[in-house]
């Protein structure tokens, strides 16, 4: 241990006076901490619960193989509370270290009892007695959580990264979160009592201190919404993870030239919207969270290559010819040889990349028709993407709009059909639609053609099925039948001599289907006088009609159901748990003329009259609350790591783990939060990291102005690293706390061999005991000059005690030299 002259104490006499007031003595601190107790909770300690670790892969990690079936690991202690009855509350943090991999890790506080090994004996073991789960049954949390649709709404490590905990005088529990950063309050059973308390940015009035993972920002909303959709699917027995399908210009790509809205641009005239930020969806984050990312609609080969380089899972394109060429030419592993995404047959490997023909191939043939599907199959797409409406007699037909549009269709009898004549699909039977309309109008440019000679399979199929024309609006069932007909045509029929016959037949025999339910939940009237929500059949009708057709054809493994309107997707989870769902995301703003259907493109993120979007089945979306309006000043993993309760138990003192952007690189902020008013006072203290310190681990107060802070670096298993406990004293607001003494956690005396015998390969045991863990995140006062220190073992990743072996949770008791811990009146 060493004494530290404060940079703010300029005279020896003043320094001695502070030591006397702080420590109750007038002599300098000397001597080393001594290990007087140690207990270990093995890394392989689990308790019953939902399967966890599903986003960790299936390869062994330091001796443990995920996932952990029907188990929750008891690990990651990041806060401790002494119950004064021989037991302790220990708080697990967010789980497996990241928002993306912890949506199945329940946030829990365990009650444990320890049998410390001491000079008087003791087994050194730890017994887990019980736990409380943080949960939000009263829906106090105003953003999407992983268990959003469940009754108890158990919180997970994807919702909050809790790193600190205190019990208030009223018995409520307060948690410091890193994602926000924010404070979370629950009762003693873990039930959330209030919406999270965000941290105001004192330096920027009207703003909040936010990190890139902030729960109240649009950028971090996609993973949280997808987590809720995945867990809803799982709760209904659907183990197939939903797909994330965004408008491609909304992806984080580092290329403003591809942005739909330039960074910081004004909103469309008359929209009344805040400026948009295009780079909202982080591909890497979504992939790490376990979601396939399949953007729409990409027609430029250069953009296709750019997105494939960013490792998207697939692409949706109006030009299947260009998409196949781009995929075939792509060098995925960078070795200079193209074709990495193709299989041995020269086809796109659907396990590696999903190439989807948008509405078949709408820039080559009129959309959502059998000829459009044929051109997609001719160009060897792995998936046929299409849209569905429901007729008056409850048949799913291929169409994009609620009306039979004059832009795409004509009357088969030659009579005039203009915008004013448009009829709703839901008002006509299938027979009426196929008898009265031909969908063959060209409007997508010079490459779109409707020459019957270009699609022999569709012509033959229409003749054999007695359809009036290959361009009648087909049913979903007819699409499935057409694909089988296509396979037969090239395998044994008239097309079998075609040079590409074998490839076409093989590809079509396994082609997948991505079927969108075209329904709009808004309640405005369009120019036809129809309420938007009444222009189509109800969501349940869509779900049953589309899902039922898939099920009857036993195509559950080859057909997805997608939608911007998540109500239908939730129903698919419930009624057809074998069918995968696809969550579409888009932001095409509604303009001033709300009665114009062309102003509502059927995309779903925009709010409605300052209310939450009606598209996401109640899942909140932080529309246009982005880094444009509130920049991210807190670093990832830079939120509330430590949080003290003042000696008078009136205030919380949450301490940020890392400096804020724009601040000194070694300065951390301690804020003051008043428990009575449940608000920040605006007061702050500054904490300066040591030259070797990179993070703090915990913070407690032990007297009106004195406390203890764990400070560390990022090493593990390194006995020359930096792991310290500092005795500090606070001053007036905005000044730096004084560091007056420190304990080296890598040089602890163990004269009685309490830490021995250990296991082969263990380091830091014996006469000089060390706590060589990457994250040491708990300190608790156990008596005069006696403290407990715990590690966060980051299960199953940290290996500080024994290389290659997952760390245990260790609870050590240290006897400090007399007067080290700040105590008493000041």
Structural class: alpha+beta
- What is the percent of helical residues? 10-25%
Globally, the shape reads elongated
Total beta-strand segments: 37
How would you explain this protein's 3D organization?
This protein has 826 residues and is of the alpha+beta class. The protein has 2 domains: 2-216 and 630-815, Tachylectin-2, Chain A, CATH 2.115.10; 218-295 and 513-629, no CATH class. The protein has 12 helices and 37 strands. Strands 13, 14, 15, 16, 17, 22, 23 and 24 form an 8-stranded mixed β-sheet that branches. It has a 5-stranded antiparallel β-sheet with strand order 1-32-31-30-29, with no helix packed on it. The longest helix is centred in the middle third of the chain and has 16 residues, at 476-491. The protein is elongated, with a radius of gyration of 31 Å. It starts with a strand and ends in an 11-residue tail after the last strand.
């Amino acid at each position: 241990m060493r004494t530290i002259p404060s940079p703010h104490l300029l005279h020896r006499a003043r320094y001695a006076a502070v030591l006397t007031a702080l420590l109750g003595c007038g002599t300098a601190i000397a001597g080393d901490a001594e290990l007087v107790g140690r207990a270990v909770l093995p890394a392989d300690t689990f308790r019953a619960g939902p399967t966890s670790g599903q986003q960790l892969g299936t390869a062994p990690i330091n001796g443990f193989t995920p996932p952990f079936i029907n188990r929750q690991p008891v690990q990651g202690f990041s806060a401790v509370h002494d119950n004064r009855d021989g037991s302790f509350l220990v708080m697990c943090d967010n789980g497996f270290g990241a928002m993306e991999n912890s949506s199945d890790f329940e946030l829990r506080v365990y009650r444990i009892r320890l049998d410390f090994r001491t000079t008087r004996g003791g087994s050194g073991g730890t017994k887990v007695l019980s736990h409380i789960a943080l949960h939000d049954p009263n829906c106090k949390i105003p953003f999407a959580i992983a268990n959003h649709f469940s009754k108890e709404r158990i919180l997970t490590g994807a919702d909050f990264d809790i790193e600190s905990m205190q019990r208030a005088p009223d018995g409520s529990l307060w948690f410091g979160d890193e994602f926000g950063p924010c404070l979370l309050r629950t009762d003693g059973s873990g039930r959330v009592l209030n919406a999270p308390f965000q941290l105001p940015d004192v330096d920027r009035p009207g703003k909040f201190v936010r990190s890139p993972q902030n729960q109240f920002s649009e950028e971090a909303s996609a993973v949280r919404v997808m987590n809720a959709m995945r867990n809803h699917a799982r709760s209904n027995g659907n183990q197939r993870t939903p797909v994330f399908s965004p408008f491609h210009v909304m992806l984080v790509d580092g290329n403003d030239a591809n942005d739909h809205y330039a960074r910081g641009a004004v909103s469309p005239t008359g929209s009344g919207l805040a400026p948009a930020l295009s780079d909202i969806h982080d591909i890497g984050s979504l992939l790490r969270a376990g979601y396939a990312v399949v953007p729409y609609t990409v027609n430029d080969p250069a953009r296709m290559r750019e997105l494939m380089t960013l490792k998207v899972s697939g692409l949706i394109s109006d030009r299947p010819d260009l998409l196949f060429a781009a995929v075939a030419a792509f060098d995925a592993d960078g070795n200079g040889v193209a074709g990495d995404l193709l299989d041995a047959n020269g086809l796109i490997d659907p396990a590696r990349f999903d190439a989807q023909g948008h509405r078949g191939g709408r820039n080559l043939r009129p959309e959502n028709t059998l000829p459009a599907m044929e051109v997609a199959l001719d160009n060897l797409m792995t998936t046929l993407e299409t849209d569905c409406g429901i007729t008056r007699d409850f048949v799913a037909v291929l169409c994009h709009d609620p009306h039979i549009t004059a832009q795409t269709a004509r009357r088969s009898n030659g009579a005039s059909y203009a915008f004013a004549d448009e009829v709703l699909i839901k008002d006509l039977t299938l027979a009426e639609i196929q008898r009265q309309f031909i969908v063959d109008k060209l409007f997508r440019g010079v490459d779109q053609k409707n020459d019957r000679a270009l699609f022999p399979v569709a012509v033959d199929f229409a003749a054999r099925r007695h359809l009036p024309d290959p361009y009648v609006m087909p049913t979903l069932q007819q699409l499935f039948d057409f694909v089988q007909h296509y396979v037969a045509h090239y395998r044994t029929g008239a097309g079998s001599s075609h040079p590409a016959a074998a490839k076409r037949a093989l590809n079509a025999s396994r082609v997948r289907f991505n079927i969108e339910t075209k329904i709009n939940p808004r309640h405005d009237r369009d120019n036809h006088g129809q309420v938007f929500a009444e222009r189509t059949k109800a969501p349940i009708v869509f779900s049953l009609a589309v899902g039922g057709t898939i099920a009857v054809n036993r195509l559950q493994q080859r057909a997805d159901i997608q939608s911007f309107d998540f109500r239908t997707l939730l129903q698919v989870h419930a009624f057809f748990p074998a069918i995968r769902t696809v969550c579409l995301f888009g932001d095409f703003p509604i303009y001033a003329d709300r009665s114009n259907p062309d102003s509502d493109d059927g995309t779903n993120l925009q709010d409605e009259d300052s209310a939450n979007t009606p598209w996401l089945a109640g899942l909140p979306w932080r529309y246009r609350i982005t880094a444009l309006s509130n920049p991210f000043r807190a670093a990832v993993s830079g939120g509330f790591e430590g949080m003290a309760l003042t000696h008078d138990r009136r205030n919380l003192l949450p301490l940020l783990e890392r400096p804020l952007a724009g601040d000194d690189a070694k300065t951390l902020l301690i804020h003051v939060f008043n428990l009575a008013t449940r608000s920040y006072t605006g007061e702050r203290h500054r904490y300066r990291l040591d030259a070797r310190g990179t993070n703090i681990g915990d913070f407690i107060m032990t007297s009106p102005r004195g406390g203890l802070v764990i400070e560390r670096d990022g090493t593990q298993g390194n006995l020359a690293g930096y792991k310290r406990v500092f005795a500090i004293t606070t001053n007036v607001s905005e000044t730096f706390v004084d560091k007056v003494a420190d304990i080296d956690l890598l040089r602890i005396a163990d004269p009685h061999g309490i830490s021995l015998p250990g296991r082969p390969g263990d380091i830091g045991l014996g006469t000089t005991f060390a706590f060589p863990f990457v994250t040491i995140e708990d300190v608790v006062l156990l008596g005069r000059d006696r403290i407990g220190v715990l590690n966060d073992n980051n299960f199953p990743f940290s290996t500080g005690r024994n290389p290659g072996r997952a760390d245990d949770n260790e609870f050590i008791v240290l006897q400090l030299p007399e007067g080290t811990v700040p105590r008493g009146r000041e």
